[in-house]
Amino acid sequence: MTGTLVLAGTPIGDTEDAPPRLAAELLAADVIAAEDTRRLRRLTTALGVHTTGRVVSYFEGNESARTPELADALEGGARVLLVTDAGMPSVSDPGYRLVAAAVERGVKVTAVPGPSAVLTALAVSGLPVDRFCFEGFLPRKAGERTGRLKEVADERRTLVYFEAPHRLADTLAAMAEVFGKDRRAAVCRELTKTYEEVRRGPLEELAEWAADGVRGEITIVVEGAPEPGPGDLGPEELVRRVRVREEAGERRKEAIAGVAAEAGVPKREVFDAVVAAKNAERGDSRAGK
Predict the structure, then answer these.
(1) What are 158-215's pLDDT values in tens digits?
(2) What is the DSSP track for the chain?
(3) Residue 159's beta-bridge partner residues?
(4) How many Cβ atoms are within 10 Å of 114's Cβ, its own excluded?
(5) Sheet containing 184-189: which strands, arranged edge to edge?
(6) What angle do CA 165, 167, 173 make, to 5 degrees?
(7) Which listed site, 2, 23, 193, 248, has its alpha carbon 20 to 30 Å from 80?
(8) For strand 218-222 and strand 184-189, is the pairing parallel, antiparallel, or unpaired?
């Protein structure tokens, strides 16, 4: 008989938010794989739990190397509990590799549902939450970050990001540049903790606020792009959207078709706008010689 892999959600702030089953699973586990063993000890102390299973570290630096060892334990019948520093494993945290390995070996995978910074931030943001996309952490380098933002510049669904406090101001400024300075957003800081704070407003305004420095764990929720009405987009905006798609890897023909479908206009109108822009750029180049 193979064992069971249990993915357990842990509090994102207040330890009283721990799911009731968490204590029972901590006691029952043969192996506890923790992103930070010191944080695990603090959590078990807060819950009044004395674990008997073997505790191993399982974090970004050793995830690839330790996964086969844990998969072998699961195949041998062990009950392995996976916990991260906060929230659900695999959501911008270690876990995916072990789940994939367990599934490949036919091992049962289950979960103890728990707190989630993504869902909590969405709930308190004041923005539409019927449809959303989770984008995780953006790249650290400015150029790569801007490129990633351009990929979702026309996304209609609400967007959710994690960000480090020392990069928050630059990220919000980049979002204001790519998405538009008036796009609504919410910066959720220290959710469920003592100094919880939710700042709501246009991206430009939030970027100015963050420039003074912000501390704590950050989740950003950004309003999706507005739905364009038929004929609402002028030639310049049509061309900009085509270029965004091309920069994201689409061929020009596909980009033109996609923009036309979004804007509710004929493909010929988008094509003509692209050609006109290209001709105008050539004219400006010749004039400068």
Answers:
(1) 999 999 999 999 999 999 999 999 999 999 999 999 999 999 999 999 999 999 999 9
(2) ---EEEEE-B-SS-GGGS-HHHHHHHHH-SEEEES-HHHHHHHHHHHT----SEEEE--TTTHHHHHHHHHHHHHTT-EEEEE-SSB-TTSSSTTHHHHHHHHHTT-EEEEE----HHHHHHHHH-S--SSEEEEEEPPSSHHHHHHHHHHTTT--SEEEEEE-GGGHHHHHHHHHHHH-TT-EEEEEESTTSTT-EEEEEEHHHHHHHHTT---S-EEEEEPPPPPPPTT-S-HHHHHHHHHHHHHTT--HHHHHHHHHHHHTS-HHHHHHHHHHHHHHHHHHHHHT-
(3) 133, 222
(4) 21
(5) 132-137, 158-163, 218-222, 184-189, 197-202
(6) 120
(7) 193
(8) antiparallel
Identity of residue 209: W
Mean pLDDT of 109-124: 95
- Residue listed under structure tokens 């959600």: 9
> Distance (Å, rounded) from C-alpha 242 to C-alpha 266?
14
Tokens describing residue 277: 């822009």
Residue located via tokens 């003592």: 194
What is the CA 235 to chain-centroid distance, rounded?
A: 32
